[in-house]
Structure formats: structure tokens, C-alpha cells
Amino acid sequence: MSILEYNGGAMIAMAGKDCVGIASDNRLGIQLQTVATDFRKVFGLNDKLFVGLAGLASDVQTVHQILKFRQDLYELREEREMTPSVLSNLLSNLLYEKRFGPYFVEPIVAGLTKENKPFLSGMDLIGAPVYTDDFVVSGTCTGNLYGM
Amino acid sequence: TTTTTTTTMARRYDSSTTTFSPEGRLHQVEYAIEAINNAGTCVGILAKDGIVMASERRITSGLLAPSKTSEKTYKLCGHAACNVAGLTADANILIDQARVKAGRYQYDYQEPIPVEQLVEYVCNYKQAYTQYGGLRPFGVSFLFAGYDEHFGFQLYQSDPSGNYSGWKATVIGANNQAGKSLLKTDYGKTAAAASDDMEEDAADKMPTLKDALLLAVKVLNKTMDGTAASSDKMELFTMTLQDNGTCKHHILTTDEAKSIIEQVEAETATSGDA
After folding, report:
1. Chain B, 95-114: which have a CB under 8 Å from a chain A CB?
2. Global pTM?
3. pLDDT (mean) for B150-159
4. Distance of CA B255 to the CA centre of its chain
5. Which one of A115, B61, B78, B189 has the largest count of C-beta atoms within 10 Å of its C-beta?
């Protein structure tokens, strides 16, 4: 059993023409038992920025709360909204800070840049980022999501 | 004569923040407060449905690059903002402290920080510089405006000593005494005029936001007396509650400010101020 599979969850984000889409399941389980069917894993941080967090449920919620905290501070100091690439970098750094005791989440970031062009990124639990222009997947059935 | 004696005596107890004078005063703290009496005026007024904070914009040089941000009004979190009188550099430190504190509270409790707790935190931070470390106090006074579900809209004032108090209306910065005396007479008047409930307790009567704005400009006119009122010399800020429960922080546009200033000018002209 892997800790990243304990609660379950899968998500995908895709780029379209001047748009992005992001989707996830709503299941919260404890190994094989389903405990909730309304568990939110995708969070809209602003009109043009979404983060999907797959992994250990506790860390999904904690990382979301930390991101909210950091985003609020950024917006107060910079007096402007956070762009997807900036958030992606922030997330990557905050995950790596916990290199030897990580948050068990594997996030995906989807949004629109200032020029309204699609932005997609995914990363592992210690913040190694990958940037794509088509799609990103994360969670417990990535194989299926890739199309295997 | 008393002043001269006190000044000469005070020399020995001046330099260290952490020393009381024989009269039981902290001179460094008092000197910090003096520094603020030379700073641009800020007025704060609590209204029925919001808060108004108006401040004097001091344009020190025509060569200064037009500011993209305010040097007076700062947002601390979704439901609180402040106006600064004093050393802007000192204020920036305290504002950042307040922002982090508010963010941390929200993170810890998943709830917005009660306004007074935020004010008390900043003030406790200021107080430390009057007692420990041999560092000088912060040369800043704040007007804090905020909303929480416990006490609704609130207005607080703080000074370099770390002392704070809640107000219905107050003034800090240059000529604040003149401003305060005008508020003493006029706040009640605008409040009474705005109230349409005869049975309402006099103490609960508060002006409308619009009336508070007009009164704030009146007060600034008095404290800035000598200089003609104009929208580029004043910054008008309002905080109100939106339908969805969140707060709206709004710095009036040049046109909106002009409109208020013109209304005040018209009123003073017709009432024939002595």
C-alpha cells in the first residue's frame, strides 16, 4: 500500500483553443471503503487559475490552505493576481522545502496566462515540475488516464 | 518656563527608550508621537453601513513619479484596511506584520481574524520597541478600519506607544486637534440627521456612508486649512459590505472624489460658515 493511494483520487487537465479544462473524481476512501462522494480536490484560486491536488486527503486540504495563505499574501503585497506559472513555481518550492518529510500530494496546475493562453503543469510530491501544452494527469489511475 | 525646565531636565532621560523620566514619562515614545504631528492628516469615520477613511496627500515634489500605489491606504486582509500617519518606511514593516498575522489566523482557524485581535497584535509589536532591545519606537500612527461578524464595522486608532482605542470618528496627523473638535460638534449632527427612528437610542445613531464622506472632507478642509481642497490632494477610502458578505475596499476615483468635494463646497457656501 502506498500512502499516495490511501484515500484515492484521480485528475486530469487539458488545454484547448484559448482555454483549459480540469476534472477530478469526488471520492474519498479509506483504502477500499468509500467514506465520502463529495470530496473536493480541484480548487479555483482565481478566475484564470485552478489547482488539482491528488493524494493523501489531509495533505490535499492542508496544501490547499497553505496555497490560499501564500496567494493572499502575494496579492496584498503585489496588488495583482497570481499567474499560473508563478503559482506553479511557488507550489514546486513549497513542496521541495519538505524534501525529507513531504506532503503526499501530486498537484496539477491549469490556468490562463496574462495573454489568455493556456498554461498546464504537473509535479511530483517533492515539486519536480513538468510543463506541457496538451494535458497533465495525476492520481491513482494515471495509466488509464494516459490511455493504457 | 515649565517647558524649558522640562526640556533641560529631560536630556538625561531622553536617549533610552527603556528609561522612565523622573516624571514617569517615556520621552522617546512622546517624541515619536510628535513626529506624527507633522505627517499628513488622516480622518476616520464610522458610518451605519461602512467606514470612511480620508487622508491628506502631501505632494513633496513635482518631479516625483506618479505613484501606482497609495502611500496612505493599505489593505491588510479581505476585511480590514488601514491608513498611515508618520514614517512610511516604519509603517511598511508593521503593515507586512499585520498581513502575515491576518493570513496566519485565517490558515489556523479557517476564519477571518477579528479586527481587534489584528489591531492588538500590531500594537503589541509596537509596544515591544518601547520596552526591549534599546531600539527606537515606530514613528507611525494607524487608523484601522475593519469588519467582522462579532462586532460589525469597527474603527481603531493606534500610536507609537502601542496603545489603541476604538472610535466612532477620529483624526490623526497634522492638526488633529482641530479636526477632532470639528468632529465633536458635527458627528452627532450628521448622525441625528441620518436617523429616521425617533425611538433609537442617541448613542446608536450613526451617519450614512455618504454623509460620513462629506464630513470627512469637511474635516480635511479644516486641517489642511490654507490649501484649496482638490481631488489630487485628498485620498478618500470606503469600506462596505457587499451582498455576498465580503467587504469592498474602494478608493474613490478622481471623479467620485471631485463630486464629494464639490458638494462640501456648496454646503459650506450656503451655510455661510463663520
Report:
1. 96, 99-100, 103-104, 106-107, 110
2. 0.92
3. 97
4. 23
5. B78
